[in-house]
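// run 5 | inverse folding | seed 20
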């Protein structure tokens, strides 16, 4: 069986024929010559319709999916057309390429699929190509996906922030969190009012007005935009964000107290206690559980803060907003007497957002809980996996690619 037969089977295009395949001079790659079928007119790349020929350009190489350790290139001499409809001389459009990239569309889809499983760097290494080409491939597939995705009705959204560039910069992410569809809808720079408004510009007022639930954290710019754009929706402060905030406060208290003990030359009881205190008790190993119990005997600020945090967990067991509200008020009152400033700050902010927190209980049955947390974790993995993503653009593409559930360009064959 010849290579041309295989190509005709999996990557055939009307108007073009595979002429012959041969090795390159160094025998490292296979080159396949392609030419237009006799009598078939070139297609104008501007209006996508056939047009009379004008001249030919130099031969171009389009990289195809490698085969048995050989790189594969399609060689084709591009024609130019004199398009009367467009009133210009334009380069022809070829069905296997996108006009900009040196990669064939089939190879771009192939690389992009691998780049969802591996890091971009690993993908480049595995297929003996460059990081830049993997970038091009992902960009091609994501651009197609964003142009062709159907937004449809959106019932619930979650807005979230993640840090990148060693924690110096923020991104705003908006997820769709309907019961049957969860996906990343939008990525924006920074976490400002302007950036979050950008999402609503993309989906338009019509869709925005039909959103029923919005989940967010207590970040004031988000709250403001939600009041402005989704005034009819039930706004919910997400459980995950509240827990995360409390853990951050506890960690601060522990670090401060640990430093103080060290500077006073005391017994370093808080040493290596970080995860003991941040993890839920049921997730600790037996040995850790003993150490935690031991630690809780000390009269430390950290221990008191830990106990307050643990007591707070009971809130999420309530079904009725009224009882949850009563519990929340009691808890806040207790914290305000604790003289632990970071915890008092949390209590103040919970009091301030009391109604939004209770909305969690009003919507509990209607939202899949923990979904924002799950998406947030995936987004963090994507940003971590990609230490090569220094720019916003790379990160944006990688996030859409792994979490956007975008439609993919059609392929002539299922290459694997
Ligand atoms: Zn044209």
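// decoded
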């Amino acid at each position: 069986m010849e290579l041309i037969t295989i190509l005709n089977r999996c990557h055939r295009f009307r108007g073009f024929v595979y002429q012959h395949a041969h090795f390159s001079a160094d025998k490292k790659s296979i080159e396949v010559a392609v030419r237009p079928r006799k009598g078939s007119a070139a297609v104008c790349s501007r209006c996508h319709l056939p047009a009379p020929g004008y001249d030919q350009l130099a031969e171009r190489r389009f990289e195809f999916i490698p085969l048995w350790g050989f790189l594969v290139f399609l060689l084709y001499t591009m024609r130019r057309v004199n398009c009367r409809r467009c009133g210009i001389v334009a380069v022809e459009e070829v069905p296997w390429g996108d006009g900009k990239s040196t990669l064939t569309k089939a190879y771009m889809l192939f690389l992009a699929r691998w780049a969802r499983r591996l890091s971009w760097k690993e993908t480049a290494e595995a297929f003996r190509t460059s990081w830049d080409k993997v970038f091009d491939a992902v960009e091609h597939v994501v651009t197609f996906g964003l142009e062709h995705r159907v937004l449809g009705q959106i019932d619930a959204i979650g807005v979230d922030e993640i840090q990148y560039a060693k924690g110096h910069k923020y991104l705003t992410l908006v997820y769709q969190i309907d019961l049957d569809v969860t996906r990343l809808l939008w990525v924006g720079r920074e976490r400002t009012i302007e950036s979050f408004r950008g999402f609503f510009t993309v989906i338009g007022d019509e869709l925005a007005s039909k959103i029923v639930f919005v989940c967010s954290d207590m970040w004031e710019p988000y709250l403001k935009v939600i009041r402005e754009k989704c005034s009819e929706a039930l706004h919910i402060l997400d459980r995950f964000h509240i827990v995360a905030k409390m853990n951050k406060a506890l960690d601060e208290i522990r670090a401060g107290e640990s430093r103080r003990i060290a500077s006073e030359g005391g017994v370093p009881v808080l040493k290596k206690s970080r995860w003991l205190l941040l993890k839920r008790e049921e997730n600790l190993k037996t040995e850790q559980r003993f150490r935690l119990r031991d630690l809780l005997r000390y009269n430390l600020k950290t221990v008191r803060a830990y106990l307050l945090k643990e007591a707070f967990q009971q809130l999420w067991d309530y079904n009725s907003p009224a009882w949850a509200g009563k519990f929340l008020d009691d808890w806040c009152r207790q914290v305000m007497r604790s003289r632990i400033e970071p915890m008092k700050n949390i209590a103040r902010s919970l009091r301030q957002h009391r109604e939004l927190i209770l909305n969690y209980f009003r919507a509990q049955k209607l939202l899949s809980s923990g979904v924002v947390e799950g998406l947030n974790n995936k987004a963090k993995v994507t940003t971590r996996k990609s230490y090569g993503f220094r720019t916003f653009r790379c990160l944006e593409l990688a996030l859409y690619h792994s979490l956007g559930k975008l439609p993919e360009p059609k392929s002539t064959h299922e290459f694997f």
